[in-house]
Amino acid sequence: MRRQRTAKILATLGPASGSPERIEELFRAGADVFRLNFSHGGREDHKKRVAAIRALEERIDRPIGVLMDLQGPKLRIGEFAGGKAELVAGAPFRLDLDPTPGDATRVGMPHPEIFQALKEGADILINDGRFRLRVLRHGADFAETQVITGGEISDHKGVNLPNLVLPLSALTPKDKDDLEFGLALGVDWVALSFVQRPEDVIELKRRVAGRAGVLAKLEKPSAVAPDTLAGIIAEADAIMVARGDLGVECPPEDVPVLQKQIIAACRLAGKPVVVATQMLETMIHAPTPTRAEASDVATAIYDGADTVMLSAETAAGDYPVEAVTMMDRIIRRVERDPLFARIREADHPAPEHTTQDAIATAARHVAHTIAAAAIVTYTSSGSSAFRAARERPDVPILGLTPKPATARRLTLAWGVHAVHTPDDIHDTSEMVALAVKAASVDFAKPGDHLVILAGMPFGTAGTTNMLRVAKI
pLDDT (tens digit, 9 = 90+) per residue, 296-332? Predict the structure, then answer.
């Protein structure tokens, strides 16, 4: 089943989409990867959904990716007497460690690490920025603030602190338990929330130990500072532009610019990048998106994103299948636009000084020159397919691999059609025969040419050093 597009779709599963029947509908509508949000739902729900995905994968004989999204540290205020209070703009308001229910003058905030990181003049955002407090004075267990933006506030609202690096690990005890559970289920990607520094990614990679790809979610201004961003991209296997919290902590006008900068940096590094949050938000309760939302999805595709993501639209919305169908339609329409082809052709990053990059760049040129039907990579780790995707060729990429885990990870990469091959191969003639067989299904016909990439010796990760042209 060939997708008639190169960008991928990541769909979140939830109450509206957790049944095996609905999962299959979403896949057939265009979902390439499924997201399990560990901020919601029980473990038994996640287990059943993974089982349904693997059963579907077996029936259709096509790799399907599964991404688990760790909750990360959730910073929240405490409770109010009566469940709510009215904050008045200009009035003083105190945050402290006292668990006593609050009122219009104070409330508890059970996070001493926040008080340690605060600075005078810093802003504290509550409930996705609906309330803004400015720090006037603070100590080890309190902060005296002035209400800048008030209104009626209620219990347990989330807290954001723009431009402050908190002395917190991105992995909570819950995340560590969830991680082991998810890895035991066989997830293919692990998304890390609340990334502030490269060390957060390193900590997760150490725990994952190669059992899944690690995706860093960029939702803090501290994470997208130029030096920090470069370090995070270098350590992560993939990146997500998590525009939800990023849009709360950064000025709205900065988010589109940051999105483009992050996509460009990931493209340069050859790392898959996902654009997420509010892409088709209206479709949670409406059968069609706004024109602005359609334009937003299209912009991400023009910018070069590998994957676009649906959150509540598929997890809890009234029209989950329609949302995936609409996203598929938008992507395919953009990719038919001659402007898209011109942008792609004009934006090829310079290859790194490695054999792998030299071969991948040459493959794109050769495929274009001879009008090849496809580029075929035979890969153990997936690295040659990811490097081929970095080149954004004008022909499909078939990622052949004997490892199911590698095939599933490749479902996140631009333009790669992952194919799980049942056995290892031993020489180039077997490799060419395998490439021809795979490409003959939906991609090529007799007389067509294939450009084949592989590493010698076979089965050794990161050794792409051979380019071969074959005729079917």
Answer: 999 999 999 999 999 999 999 999 999 999 999 999 9
For the stretch 352-361, pLDDT in tens is 888 889 999 9
Segment 48-67 shows an average pLDDT of 97
Q: Is 336 an active-site residue? A: no
DSSP E strand stretches across 238-390: 238-242, 273-276, 307-310, 374-378
Write down the pLDDT at residue 349: 86
**Known active-site residue 106:** no
Q: What is the pLDDT of residue 462?
A: 62
Domain that holds residue 387: 355-471
To 10 degrees, the CA torsion angle through 31, 32, 37, 40? 30
Active-site residue among 3, 47, 74, 76?
A: 76
Of 277, 307, 314, 379, which is the active-site residue? Answer: 277
pLDDT of residue 187: 98
**CATH code, domain carrying 118:** 2.40.33.10
Are 248 and 317 within one domain?
A: yes
Please pick, among 217, 220, 243, 409, the residue that the annotation labels catalytic. Answer: 217
For residue 374, is it within any domain? yes
Q: Are residues 26 and 152 in the same domain?
A: no
Q: What is the CATH number of the domain that holds 197?
A: 3.20.20.60
Kindly report the number of other CB atoms within 10 A of residue 399's CB atom.
30
- Catalytic annotation on 119? no
**How far apart are alpha carbons 423 and 439 in whole angstroms?**
17
Same domain, 298 and 255: yes
